[in-house]
Amino acid sequence: MDRFKNILVTGGAGFIGSNFLNHMIIKYSDVNFINLDLLTYAGNLDYLNVVKDYPNYFFIEGDISDSKLVTSIFKKYSVDGVINFAAESHVDNSIGDPSDFIKTNINGTFNLLKVAYDSWMISPFKHKSGFLHSRFHQVSTDEVYGSIEQGSFNENSAYNPSSPYSSSKSSADLIVKSFNKTYGLNTTISLSSNNFGPNQNREKFIPVVLNSILNNVPVPVYGDGKNIRDWIFVDDNCKIIELIFKKGLSGESYNIGGGNEISNLDLIDLIFNSIITCSKNITDYQINFIDDRFGHDRRYSVNNSKIISDLGWSNDFSNFHKSLDFYVKNYINSHF
After folding, report:
1. Lesser CB count within 10 Å: N end or C end of the chain?
2. If DSSP codes are grouped into helix, strand and coil, which group holds residue 308?
3. Is 142 labeled as catalytic in the residue annotation?
4. What DSSP string runs through 3-39?
5. Structure confidence at residue 91 as a pLDDT band (50, 70, 90)
6. What tens digit of pLDDT does each residue of 211-250 get?
7. CA–CA dist 232, 199 (Å, integer)
8. Can you give the C-alpha Rg of the chain in angstroms?
9. Residue 309: exposed, middle, or buried by beta-carbon count in 10 A (0-12, 13-18, 19+)?
């Protein structure tokens, strides 16, 4: 992080953003981290209690779509790097009402890009003094590629989103790419598989499974439960985002897959097996199969080879089963 001094992290009170800040603020004491978060239902400042009093951490409550606010932050802190975690991300909510997804994921990302361009550049491909190193990193998702029956998507695969959520993230990615190609803005994009770990909102699949089993309520499962997702422990994703931000090439996208593809039904069984090792009151679980989600993708899978070959990632991921077991036990201890 030698070249960056003041990094704006948006959505830093959310799930992945808070884990990223908890890692980075302590590791890079000579870099200022400015956390801009609207504190919607998915944001919680308690996630940052460990670092809230660090001198290199600053929090601002606000909307990434607010041009005046974002501009004032860039000026006040001389922001020279942006990592955009801020997003509406729950697929069911996007199907019910896409409005917030369009506002935050598309308009918000565009606003951040425009302010970054105005702050760092004189004109296309000409940087202001002191900002030649500046970078905008977009945190995206493997869902933009859509479903794949066999094999895995690489970074050259076409986007084929299915939901308003993944469509809004696809749109944001394309706007990021356009600012790189048209204006020369230094940008990178990471597209990760499903994350799990501390601070994840209760609406997400693994917390839903945990709460259902622990409260003796049938686990709601869409369709036949055989949809396959690739899971990655959030700490691993954060470390690779750090690597991409430091070493990734401008204009490039990088897939981040955990290499842990598993059906929803098999994942529920793994979670149950973790629960019963530390909760003797739980002896069984039930599943409530519900009507399938509209536009439900069958299988996600991304190829990791680019971060290994181009960035030197060692493919050293946390053990999936150990990480899941660790998360389940800590979840039970903190919530029950």
Report:
1. C
2. helix
3. yes
4. T-SEEEEETTTSHHHHHHHHHHHHH-TTSEEEEEE--
5. confident
6. 999 999 999 999 999 999 999 999 999 999 999 999 999 9
7. 14
8. 20
9. exposed
Q: Which of 143, 173, 235, 325 is catalytic?
A: 143
Q: Is 285 part of the annotated catalytic residue set?
A: no
The two tokens of residue 43 are 């944001």
Of 142, 235, 236, 242, the active-site residue reads 142
Length of the chain: 336
Counting Cα atoms < 13 Å in the Cβ hemisphere of 297 gives 24
pLDDT tens by residue, 277-289: 887 688 899 999 9
- On the CB side of 318, how many CA atoms lie within 13 Å of its CA? 21
Given CATH 3.30.930.10, say whether it is the number of domain 6-201+231-259+301-317.
no
User: Beta strands 81-84 and 135-141: pairing type?
Assistant: parallel
Report d(CA 44, CA 201) in Å as an integer: 10
Q: If you average pLDDT over residues 293-297, what whole number do you get? A: 92
Domain assignments of the chain as residue spans, ordered by start: 6-201+231-259+301-317
Name the 3-class secondary structure at 40. Answer: coil
| Residue closest to 238 by CA, chosen among 58, 14, 79 | 14
**Residue 235 structure tokens:** 């700490």
Asked about 316 being catalytic, the answer comes back as: no
Residue 82 above 80 pLDDT?
Answer: yes
The pLDDT tens digits of the residues spanning 8-29 come to: 999 999 999 999 999 999 999 9
